[in-house]
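Reopening this one. Same input as before:
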Amino acid sequence: MPFRSSISDVRVGLIPRRVVFGKEIQEHEATLDPNNVRDFVDGYLLEIQKKSVDPNSTFTREVLIDLSRTFFGAGSETVRTTVDWMLLVCVTYPEVQKKIHSEIDEVLGQDRFPTWNDRLNMPFTEGAIAELMRWKTSVPLNLMH
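Same output, byte for byte:
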């Protein structure tokens, strides 16, 4: 069956990601401190420990690896897609690019990186991003919950 070959190809492509996330989780396990939960992985590892006596627990290392892959993919894909669209908009509407560039230079200058609070002083840039996300949404709006 040709479909089986496709599934095998997908599985082969996923193996390296599982290995990468598995190593990251191993590092978290080695440095886990119940009094200092650093992130989602630490919290999940603590839940695995708490539920280890329950044979029906869904808190497992395999599930943690899958969740980590899902979070990484979901977060990076939407950001990449949004940046791609913004680049296309700036090429299509150079006047928008010029206004964004001028506003960023005015607020930040050339000497520092932006902070979260800088957005309050960049209404055009903030508005352009909001309009882009409305116009060219990177997330399907019809997902069942």
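So the earlier flakiness isn't reproducible anymore. For the record, The chain has two domains: 1-77, 93-144.
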